[in-house]
């Protein structure tokens, strides 16, 4: 099936994101400026759209397209892994082992302000794997057991993090500064509990909504990183090593129910199984552009082999706390 919200067709194929094929334009940024509103219309309706044929070849091309689609790009804060910054608001995908999946999540869902729009652009496609999967967050919410979603609606979810110089994102990576006073000011302004450790490390806790209503459609969306940032999503050998070295309370990150109770491995497995049942995927091709509504749609990154270069931009800030369902 296809639609014609753009001057080209948008194909809706089972198991894959909506795909718009275009003839290579002379200047990709000019094409994006002309058709940006129509592309956003597809994203608003479908949650995502993959544009193929733009011929993006460099970070300069990508930066120009991102700025035409969203003139103001958001800086990243509270990163859980390091990124390379190509330009203001234009980053590499998060550093993560190529042989390990990045499970479904909503970008920065642990922050007070999150991007409403995500933009991904592929310059180098991997030899195998590495797709950015997507999943409808409202469909995932409806597929989960009502007792579980009701608890998360009542309590929210809790993210705990431990920052050290040895593993995971550094304090400077996460907060944009290593200055203690500036880090503390950021935490206070963003409802993050913090405690400095004797070795100079930092531990934080932040409670966030796990279910939000989409700002436009009003649909309840499963919106969090409960599964992705859980210790149970880590490779078992990696988790065992980290617990041995840092202790159960010193993991780089893990998630809990909003009341602080641990989330069992069975719950995380159920979440990941539900995501997988609702995942659409399409292998990257060089020059591809993927736009994602970050509230409507979760995204992932699958394991891969070979070089992979995907650039990311974030825009259209939203405060999830303003869209918590009434109880």
From TrEMBL:
PANTHER family: GAMMA-BUTYROBETAINE HYDROXYLASE-RELATED, TAUD_TFDA-LIKE DOMAIN-CONTAINING PROTEIN. InterPro entries: AlphaKG_dependent_hydroxylases, TauD-like_sf, TauD/TfdA-like. This is TauD/TfdA family dioxygenase. Residues 30-313 form the TauD/TfdA-like domain. The keyword Manganese does not apply. It comes from the Bacteria. Pfam families: TauD. It comes from Prauserella oleivorans. Keywords: Antibiotic biosynthesis, Dioxygenase, Iron, Oxidoreductase. Its EC number is 1.14.11.-. The keyword Iron applies. Its cofactor is Fe(2+). GO terms for molecular function: dioxygenase activity.
